Amino acid sequence: MLNFTELVLNTVDPVYAQISEFVKRQIFLGKAKKGDPLPSRRELATQLKINPNTAQKAFRVLEDAGLVLTPKNTVSILYFDEEMLLEIQREMTGDLVAEFVKRLKENKLSLDEVLGLLQQEWEKGEQA
């Protein structure tokens, strides 16, 4: 079962969106697999100390995205195909790169400086 205890909610983003992002990140990291069961909406609300309606909205968003199936009278499960997985991977890496580039530009670094720093860090990782 997907473990939501690692999810630390912030006060900036809507809670349902944070839950959806968390599930996508767990899929991206390989911590969540196709067919993994999810806690009930009530269990999720209790775990995260949120309103059950918020948990319901998070599930609805995930179902609308095609990432969660909830067959009648059974537990909800993660569901995604190879195409969805690739889209999650693109979304997660694209967001990381966009944030990285934004911060570098804020720090007034040139592309050449960034590439040099990346090269240094990359080589450090190979030596470790």
The strand line-up of the biggest sheet is 1-2
Percent range of helical residues: 55-70%
Spatial gap, N to C terminus: 35 Å
Largest sheet: 2 strands, antiparallel
The number of distinct helices, counting runs of at least 4 residues, comes to 5
Radius of gyration: 18 Å
Coarse shape:
elongated
- Helix/strand-derived category reads mainly alpha
- Tell me the total number of β-strands: 2
Order of helices and strands: HHHEEHH
Give the averaged pLDDT, no decimals: 93
Residue fraction in strands: under 5%
Unreliable parts: none
Task: Give an account of the 3D structure.
By secondary structure, the protein is mainly α. It is 60% helix and 3% strand. The chain is built from five helices and two strands. The chain has helices at residues 15-28, 41-48, 52-64, 82-106, 111-127; strands at residues 68-69, 77-78. The chain has a two-stranded antiparallel sheet with strand order 1-2. Strand 1 (68-69) and strand 2 form a beta hairpin. The longest helix has 25 residues, at 82-106. It is elongated and about 55 Å long.
